Amino acid sequence: MSSIPSYIFSIVLLVLLSLQRTTSIQVVVGAIIDGTSRAGKEANVSLQIALDDISRKADQRMVLHITNSHGKPAVAALSAKRLIDAKEVQVIIGPHTWQEASRVAEVSSQGNIPTFSLSDYTPRWAMKRWPFLVQASVSNQDAQMKAVAAIVQSWDWHRVNIIYEDDTDSAFGSIIPNLMESLQEVGAEISHLVPLRSFNASSLTEELTRLREQQCRVFVVHTSIKVATHLFQKAKEMKMMEKDYIWIVTNTIADFFHSLDLTTIYSMQGVIGVKKYFPTSGIRFVDFRKRFQKKFSLDYPEEGNDEPGISAVETYNALLAVAHTFGGRKVQFSKQSEMSLDKISFLHFYGLAGRVQFNGRKLTPSHMFGIVNVIGKSFKELGIWSKGLGFSKNIDDIAIHNSSMQNLGQVIWPGQSLHTPEGWGHSNSSGFWRNGVPTGSMFNQMINISHDPQTDNLTFTGYVIDTFREAMARLPYYVPYEFIPYNGTFDSLVEQVYLKKFDGTVGVSVIADRYKYADFTRTYTGSSLVMLVPVESKTPSRAWLFLKPFTKAMWLLIFFITIYNGFVIWLIERNHNQRLQGSAMDQAGILIWLSFTTLFSLQGGRLHSNLSRTAVVVWLFVALVITQSYSASLTSMLTMQKLEAKISDIETLKTKNAIVGHTRGFYGNYLQNVLGFKSINLKSFSSQEEYAKALKTGEIAAGFIHATYLKLFLAKHCKSFVVAGPSYKVGGHGFAFPKGSPIIADFDKALLEVTECGKLRELEDKMIGEERCADADSSNDDEVSLSLNSFWILFLFTGVTTTCSLAIYILGS
After folding, report:
1. Cα dihedral sign for 762, 768, 771, 774?
2. What 3-state DSSP class applies to 427?
3. Strand, coil or helix: what is 79?
4. CA torsion angle for 167, 171, 172, 177 (degrees, to 10)?
């Protein structure tokens, strides 16, 4: 009897459940996944878990049909058509690639079937072309490229290589404009852009070999995980995953770090990844993870890792969004679907790993990315990057953000290196930066190469070498380098950089034509070409030259003091000497005679008063100094040579068809092509002594020399040659490096520091050194005339002495 009520209760319960099923809302959903990919496998498991969670609701029943496209766009399109026609699905979820999603959108839009695309990339035009397309991925390519650029800026890298996947249907190349703009904002440039169109071993080897030969060592990779696996395995074989290399990968690779096998992980040691960020500490996600891991390991035992990634999260949320959007009504085609899609514009709910919100038909993009570092058997979470905020260690520290990734802690770089790579390198195996140095410099002060026979070592000194060393010492990183002598032309020396025989050169001029083979730093010397000509002397022969030793004021004072002294002596001595008496005319003549004779003799025996003797002794001393100064000054003026240039302009040289000289280098071409000299009238010199001798002997009428060399040349031959005519703008001296070398920006900054701190001027003064001498005296005669400033003490002394004698005489009379 007790079993009858239970039986009846079971029947009633089944009837009620049957009635509920017939009255509940049913949504038929189709899902297209790539069952061969990790994203597809995670999506498959995630969809089943989401379906179970949604089915627990009493007012909604969902039917799910999952098909496998095997990653082929054509198969995805056929699957979409079968789902619509045969299964009468009302919504389609997936696929994960734009190649497949675009084909599915085209098919589903014809039947007004909404498609929730999980592709990372959805172009703007696609949303207009297919009004039933919904973007269900949190991808934000613009923000992600800014995150990559922020990483590059953090370590002061100025050039990067970009490797991206580029087949006929791929959308990976779509990020390039955003990446270029983001890098430009942080002062970095793209050194090489490498589209991978074929993924066989030979093509990868060819591309990587070409990149390995370049100096730029920073690589940004944006490919599918499948292509990245082959790429990094090949890079490891070619020793491009070792010290000094930097690899940065985008989310299309980093999102799947958790799923990689050990072989692939070991080939990617030291890689920095930018991945989509989602919190994993919530209760809902923790529960989902347990269920996911259990089911995933059962369904895909061949997979080595059962951790859910962003693909599982986005797929789960996509099915949840379908339930929120199309639940509560029987979804029909056409207008009913459009009305349901209108709800997407205002849809928001709490998803698997946080708040999910749609804006229009797009899932609100994420502005936050995780920064990870591949280490050991897995990867390390370094922190997060947020648009507009920068780097922080975790979501809890989002208020404590930094502009530099360096604040996230120690990064393990390729080759297990703890030292941050410079971002560039060289192709030789010596480990040293090889710099070519030209031999046979005209001036040893510029470049001097000496050989020690005992040690068989070469020593490099000089202004150019010292400047290079000072700049290298100011680089923000250490670069071992060496100098190698080169006996050849300057053009061929620069060409050796292009041929990869040298990693750089010193002691060359920056010329436009040489940019074919190398790039140059800023110049550290002047950039003028000047004309040097011999001088001829002219001895002045003016009639009144004898007056020039003294100024007019000096002559007047001498005349006045002389008359004054003669008058005082005459006044004191006239009562003792009858020759000083007589008529007024006689006394005036004697007074004048007495005044000037005291300039040349003491006449002490004829003077009777000690007062007059004192005045004469002092005046004679002063007169002696004045006469000797006059003689020396006049002698100097008579023997002084006035130096003048023999030729003042290049037109005179060309008119006379004169031979002109120049130093070795490109200057011969400049004189011929720009200044218009005939090639037969040009002569090159590589020796300072030969150059000076040719100018002195008239072998050449003039010589053209760089402004930097001019200082040294005139320091040694300052009285034989002068600069004539205008100067001509040419290239100054700089340092050559391979084209596109990232070191140039750092080296330019270092050269500015050397200049601004005064070190460059110090090196220039050291270069000229003891050879500095005064120029020929070109001052005019008025400037060398002696003035009162040199003798006023003497005049004051004699004037006071004579006046005192006169006063004593008057008072004693």
Report:
1. negative
2. coil
3. helix
4. 120
SS3 of residue 98 by DSSP: helix
Where a domain ends, among 525, 553, 572?
525
Q: Residue 717 and residue 692: Cα distance in Å, rounded? A: 8
The answer to whether residue 425 sits within a structural domain is no
Q: pLDDT tens-digit profile of 609-646?
A: 777 778 777 777 887 787 887 777 777 766 655 556 66
Calpha distance 488→437 (Å, rounded): 10
**Domain-terminating residue out of 324, 341, 363:** 363
Using one digit for the tens of pLDDT, what is the confidence trace for 477-497? 777 889 999 988 889 999 999
The verdict on 706 and 662 lying in the same domain is yes
Stretch (H or E) spanning 618? helix 610-639
Nearest-5° Cα angle at 648, 643 to 651 = 160
Looking at the domain assignment, is residue 740 inside a domain?
no
CATH of the domain at 510: 3.40.190.10
- pLDDT, tens only, 548-592: 777 888 888 878 877 777 777 777 776 666 555 555 565 566 656
pLDDT for 387-439, tens place per residue?
888 999 887 766 667 888 998 989 999 999 898 888 887 666 566 888 999 98
Say if residue 267 is in the same domain as residue 133: no
Q: 626 and 655 in one domain?
A: no
For the domain that residue 709 is a member of, what is the CATH number? 3.40.190
Cβ within 8 Å of residue 376, ≥6 positions away? 265, 269
Predicted confidence (pLDDT) at residue 9 exceeds the cutoff of 60: no
Q: Are 263 and 230 in contact (CB under 8 A)?
A: no
Instruction: For residue 225, give its domain range.
Output: 141-277+366-416
- Is residue 13 domain-resident? no
Report the distance separating Cα 392 and Cα 395, nearest Å.
7
pLDDT score for 169: 59
- What CATH number does the domain containing 102 carry? 3.40.50.2300
What integer pLDDT is reported at residue 646 of this predicted model? 67
Total domains present in the chain: 5
Mean pLDDT for the stretch of residues 682-709 = 85
Measured between alpha carbons, how far is residue 435 from residues 500, 506, 508, 792 in Å?
A: 11, 7, 12, 64
Chain segment 654-671, per-residue pLDDT in tens: 888 889 888 877 788 888
Q: Would 14 be classed as within a structural domain?
A: no
Are 59 and 167 in the same domain? Answer: no
Q: Are residues 260 and 372 in the same domain?
A: yes
Please state, in angstroms and as integers, the Cα–Cα distance from residue 562 to each residue in 565, 724, 793, 802, following that order. 5, 49, 16, 11
Digit-coded pLDDT (tens) for 275-303: 999 888 889 999 999 999 999 999 999 88
Q: Give the contacts of 486 (CB within 8 A, at least 6 positions apart).
A: 436, 437, 438, 439, 493, 496, 502, 505
User: Are 557 and 632 part of one and the same domain?
Assistant: yes
Residues 215 and 77 placed together within one structural domain of the fold: no
Identify which of 319, 359, 348 has the alpha carbon closest to the alpha carbon of residue 94: 319
User: Number of C-alpha atoms within 13 angstroms, CB side, residue 514?
Assistant: 28
168 shares its domain with 265 = yes
Q: How far is it, in rounded angstroms, from Cα 647 to Cα 659? A: 13
As to burial, measured by CB atoms within 10 angstroms (0-12 exposed, 13-18 middle, 19+ buried), residue 368 is buried
* pLDDT tens digits for range 723-735: 887 888 888 889 9
> Does residue 41 have a pLDDT over 90?
yes
Q: What is the DSSP string of 627-682?
A: HHHHHHHHHHHHH--EEEES---HHHHHHTT--EEEESSTHHHHHHHTS---GGGE
> How would residue 146 be classed by pLDDT, with cut points 50, 70 and 90?
very high
- Cα gap 385→383, rounded to integer Å: 7
| Separation of alpha carbons 296 and 288, rounded Å | 12
pLDDT digits (tens, 9 = 90+) for 149-180: 999 999 988 889 999 988 655 677 778 888 98
Peptide bond just before 95 cis, omega within 30 deg: yes
